[in-house]
Prior knowledge:
The structure holds two protein chains of two kinds. In chain A, 71% of the residues lie in helices and 1% in strands. Chain A is an all-alpha fold. The longest helix of chain A is centred in the middle third of the chain and has 32 residues. In chain A, 63% of the residues are buried. By secondary structure, chain B is mainly alpha-helical. Helix content of chain B is 72%, strand content 6%. Chain B has 26 helices and seven strands. In chain B, the strands form two sheets. In chain B, strands 1-2-3-4 form a four-stranded antiparallel sheet. A two-stranded antiparallel ribbon of chain B has the order 6-7. The N terminus of chain B is likely disordered. The interface between A and B is large, with 83 and 87 residues.
Amino acid sequence: MSGLHWFFSPLCALLLAPLIPGVINRTKSFVAGRRGPPLSQPHRDVIKALRRGAVYGDATTALVRLGPVVNLGALIAALLLLPFAGVPAVTGFSGDLIVLVGLLALGRFMTVLAALDTGSSFEGMGASREVHFAALAEPALLLALATLTRVTGATSLSPIYQVMGVPAWAHALPTLALVAMTFLVLELVENSRIPVDDPTTHLELTMIHEVMVLDHTGPDLAIIQYGAALKLWVLGALFVGLAVPVRTGNLWLDGAAALTGMAGLAIVVGIVESAMARYRLVHVPQFIVGAATLAAVGFIVLLV
Amino acid sequence: MGHAGDDRELCFGTFRLRQSFGPVVSLLLVAIALLGLGGALASALRFRPAFAQSLGQTGAVGGSALGLAAAVNTLYSGRIDVLTASWPMPGGGLHLEIDALSAFFLLPVFGLSLLTGIYGRSYLQGRDTGHAAASWFHLNMLSAAMALVIVARDGLLFLVAWEIMALSPFFLVIFDDRPEAVRQAAWIYLAATHLGTAFLLVMFVLLGNLAGSSDFAGYAAVLHGHPGLSSTMFLLALVGFGAKAGIVPAHVWLPEAHPAAPSHASALMSGAMIKVGIYGIVRILTLMDAPMAWWGWALIAAGASSGVLGVLYALAQHDLKRLLAYHSVENIGIILIGIGIGVLGLAYGMTVLAVLGFAAGLLHVVNHSIFKGLLFLGAGAVQHAAHTVEIEELGGLLKRMPWTGTTFLIGAAAIVGLPPLNGFVSEFLLVYSGYLGLIEPNTAIASAGLVSIVSMGLISGLAAACFAKAFGVVFLGSPRSHEAGEAREAAAPMLVSMAVLALCCVAIGAAAPWAVQSLASVVGTVSHLPPPQVHAALAPVTASLTAAIVVFAVLAGVALVAWILRARRLAIAGVRRAPVWGCGFQRPTARMQYTASSFAQPLVTQFRLLIRNREVLAAPDGYFPTSSSYVSDSGDPFLRLLFAPTFRWFGRMTRRIYVVQHGHIHVYVLYVAATLIALIFWGSLSP
């Protein structure tokens, strides 16, 4: 296929990622009986923040500015490894899934340090929770990817997702269903959505991601918001690539199916956010470990 | 590969030396002699402390540079270099040999010895100087003894060098001998290291008896074709060398000894000495036939438990050097998982897995010595500047010590395993070998792969939490004490040492494919696999790492562009500074910041069954609370719940021997005489 083929996945992500929080918010508004903000509201928020000046805390160093930038770089680099709609990633190699996990970890580490750079106790609180849940989510993600590796016999994301069609589901239905559940939970955990974190609460004491970026303003905030949308996309694509097993080989058909899948995922997240309350913080680890256990059970099913 | 050097006979007085005289080993001996000489002169001239310290430092730097040259030479040429001499020592001979494996382990020894030598002089400035001069003797003896252990091919010589290596740190740990805790730490270290040596003694004596000689070649001949004997020796080696390496539960000396020793000595001990324990395990493996599968499992189990427990205990610490010491336990665990996968691969005949496992473990040896050395030196700079390593007293040091802070950040990111630094490369190799194991039909291999992947995920996630805490609370925010607020940047030589190590972290990450490829000869030596097979197994992973570097270059490019664009945007839109949001509270103080304890509290609480730290909380009570307090004690649970009761019991039991203790010297002479007579009698009975 043409050059468009190679850049299909990153281009979709870069342009459409902010629509995901848009769809989530729209869904929540619909369930609550409101009309809600337009789908392009996250795009507009990013542009608005880009125009603003910045205010930095008294104690801050250059790290508070470096954090969002490195996080963005890590997520855009991750897009290069991400297959979408059965189309192979821009670059794929044996073991690239480990690099993907490493990139997510790097982005998170820098975000956490940027939060701690402010010296604010609220941001320390958010950072503490973020690293806690991430420490449990990382093995869960590796475990889910390990199970997919065992199913497909491939150690690279592109080959794994290329064969994730109906035949693969027919071959390993229970395992794939369990891994899909793990990915769905990880999408909620890694992106600080309900039931792990409530991004719209008004009380800083209860937040995770939003409180970490509380003192970021202007272009830094824009980069953070855009990065958050990209992260929703990256983890969402891992779920949708599995849950929408349309692999006809036609870019337009597969692409439409995958994009519909992403929209569907956003609606599901919106419905979850409308229907559930946030867990108490002490119960979140059980939620994550439970998700990891699902993938582990999927792996064990393969062995017997 | 051949034996270089020439054989000749020399006459020294009454005894003759039959020697094979390798040039590289000779260079190494000169290096060791220089280290020893510098140390001895420093100790002898301690009445002129400044001069003595300079001599000690010169010996350390010069000797290490020579030794480094010898090691690099061997790694490049791939030639085994031997020095043998008949020696008038009963039961032992002088047999030194430097092969790829020895040269590889000499890199961290001499590299860190060189850098700690540069660092140490400035670090010791303003200390009790006669005492400080003497510390160079022990520091240099430690380096020299480590080098000797690594090149010794004779059991007796090995044990003698091992004992010097074990004793020197005792004197370094007890450097500040006034606080009770320091003396306690030194005793714990001494007991731990000799418990380990006891197992090694049994191993070497058994092997020596069976072989009839103390030469390693004789050991290999005895072990050949005897899997049962090999298994016994493997277990003895795992326990004996594991005590030095710091495998759980023999890790208890690390968190006591490392904080007590001067920081550059901690760097050398943690970066190089515990690796000599790993060297011992690997060397013993090379003397044996193809290993058995359960050895691999034992190594993976020891590695996974050390890794996870090490990082969990580290999380609960609020002394920076204690925290770093526990991370050594964690990283030894990672190294052992790699070696375990290598052994498992050999046992099942899966060469790719074997090569990748060994490569991961060995590369992590060098990586850990780089970033742990860097972090200990950074902690030393903090201690020098702020007079404490108590994390809760620090804060905001990045502003006052920008170079120390930046290099510490690089070290922290590297130890967490973040791309694109060196820690990521070895952890990538390890997790990658796990994923390769997953696709094998063999269920045992697949399970081992899964275990290593999950434990690595958990370890690196928890390590990220721990170093976010360590770096964030120490270097970011506002100073929590007056001393931290007055801190000044470290002296230039200290910064040079840290900068070199930080550059190594970046360089190995950036040249990852090259770094992995240059492991081929070492992995070949360990696994006994022919070079083509090793290269074939490493080729795909170097290709992957090359592709990964392109991805990281994109990351750097995007970050740079975003950085420039936002700076330009802000040049127009304007920037101002203000107090951070305090929920409406207008007068925040530094004491309101999140502390290390509060940062780690959720994780520590979740894993309290494993960490078993003790907390005493007096919560504020009533409408007008007058006082409240919180004390947490993160003492080692193995020390408190396992070793302390055991030794107390042991002490009670041995008290019964007191009846033969009088304190009269003639009675003791009688005991000696009686023992001798008994031994002669016993000797005359046996044929």
